[in-house]
Amino acid sequence: MPRRALPLPRSDVAHLDALTAAQHKIDSLQPGEIHPLSAKTSGRLARVRTVFGRAYSDWRAVLGQQTEATTAANREKEALRIDVAHFFQALNLAIARGEPGFRAGDRTYYGLAANQGTLPTMVKETELLRVAETLVSGEAKRVAAGGKRCTMPTAKEISRRLREVKRLVRLRKRLVAECDRKNVAVARLRPEVADLVRDIWDELDFAWRRDEPAARRRRLREWGVVFVTRGREAKVPGITSARLQLAEPQSQILTSDFRPPALFRECGHNPLQASRPRARRRSPRTDDRNERLASCNPSDFARKIE
Fold first, then answer.
1. Which residues are CB-contacts of 226 (< 8 A; sequence separation ≥ 6)?
2. Quick check: 232 pLDDT over 80?
3. Which has the minimum average pLDDT: 181-190, 241-250, 268-277?
4. Best CA proximity match to 111, nearest among 83, 81, 141
5. Which residues have C-beta within 8 Å of that of residue 87, sequence separation ≥ 6?
């Protein structure tokens, strides 16, 4: 038999759905139709549903903006990482070929050792931004000192990409802080919302407590009450609407003195027998081989070896 869900709704969406269903039912009541909720509870429902719904919608909207900003920032950071890597690869190849305007000592303009032929570390966001900023400023100093401008990509392109990454990072941080504030506002309303849903469902349950179970569940569902099947209300083969009552906790260990309830005996099911592992069968060939080995004399094996 379905029972009312216990515990009550756990998520913000479930609480908001319960309040919305109850409010819609109140709005659709016809003149003369029974109003099971008290005036105080109805007033709380109208006020809390509006406040909580607005706070939850604002939080979800900011969360969506934060997700989009984070995705865009990650995409631009990856592009910047590729541009910086290609710049240093082109620089190292030009130095290795001995191109005019490119010397091994030019690496010092970018914060690298003169003999460093590997890429700088750019795993973290702070490392990537620091390396990109050093690259832009170092390229300007190297060109001013008489060096040849490095292309594919140029420092100007990297500088433009760097500014875009910084803008997106600032936007992401601002949205993260705003999303945290919105989440705190929603969290402050959760206890009041949970108490209101509990009061509404209790008043509804009390109003139709004398009705037949099926009619009572139908009425309660119209007001947003959720019903589920409890775990102990299992179906037993051959018995309809059986309700298994476990007298002992689930942690009890079955012993040889265990006697299955009459309900299990009627359907031919014994939990004690079901819990025992089955013995492994051995083939007749295996038994014959074991008997021959047991009857052998070790001296026979010694003669065969000699």
1. 4, 5, 9, 14, 18
2. no
3. 241-250
4. 141
5. 135, 150, 153, 155, 158
Q: Does the structure show a pLDDT above 60 at 248?
A: no
Residues 150 and 139 sit within 8 Å (Cβ to Cβ): yes
- What CATH fold (topology level) applies to the domain 1-230? Ferritin (1.20.1260)
pLDDT digits (tens, 9 = 90+) for 185-223: 999 999 999 999 999 999 999 999 999 988 988 999 999
In the numeric block, the tokens 């594919």 are attached to 152
Q: Answer whether 152's CB lies under 8 Å from 90's CB.
A: yes
Hey, is 227 helix, strand or coil? strand
Domain ranges of the chain: 1-230, 238-306
| Structure-block tokens of residue 194 | 């949970």
Over residues 11-37, the pLDDT tens digits come to 999 999 999 999 999 999 988 888 999
Question: Residue 137 contacts by C-beta under 8 Å, 6 or more apart in sequence?
Answer: none
Alpha-carbon gap, residue 47 to 192, rounded angstroms: 11
Q: ∠29-42-19 over CA atoms, to 5°?
A: 85
Q: Three-state SS string across 1-33, please?
A: CCEECCCCCCCHHHHHHHHHHHHHHHHCCCCCC
Cβ burial of 306 (10 Å; 0-12, 13-18, 19+) is exposed
* Tokens encoding 20: 């919305």
